[in-house]
Specification:
Number of strands: 4
Order of helices and strands: EHEHEEHHH
Largest sheet: 2 strands, antiparallel
Number of helices: 5
Radius of gyration: 16 Å
Number of domains: 1
Strand content: 5-15%
Strand order of the largest sheet: 1-2
């Protein structure tokens, strides 16, 4: 089935934690600005985009997300979801400061990378020079 990922903007991690705890992980009832992004996990796929935007190579911590719900979920290997993580401020700021004029070229590069066989990807991960 793949990973179903939603990205949303909330007033605080505490507000999200409280709502998820009250609803036992059920769907959030508060309406947030949301982007549904099936298959766009923070570590690899979003991380590749962040690397392209910053013009730097991808590495596993380029997006520094951390689990905020369920509490202690890092140790609970039987928990099968849902999970809620928060993105680091640098990732948020990178996305927020993206020049709209760069979007078409970044989208094409990201799409091409995701459709390229792994053995051909190293060249795509090198920073692009303008």
């Amino acid at each position: 089935m793949g990973v179903l990922t939603d990205y949303f903007r909330a007033p605080s991690a505490a507000a999200v934690q409280q709502e998820l705890t009250m609803d036992e992980g059920g769907p959030l009832t508060t309406v947030y600005d949301t982007v549904e992004a099936k298959g766009i996990d923070p570590t690899v796929v979003l991380g590749q985009l962040i690397g392209f935007i910053r013009d730097e190579p991808w590495h596993p911590r380029i997006v520094d997300d951390r689990l905020i719900w369920p509490e202690g979920g890092e140790q609970d290997t039987s928990h099968e979801g849902p999970w809620t993580t928060i993105l680091d401020n640098e990732t948020r700021d990178t996305l927020a400061s993206l020049d709209p004029a760069r979007v078409p070229s970044l989208a094409a590069r990201w799409f091409h990378h995701r459709r390229t066989p792994p053995e051909h990807r190293p060249a795509l991960l090198r920073p692009a020079h303008h």
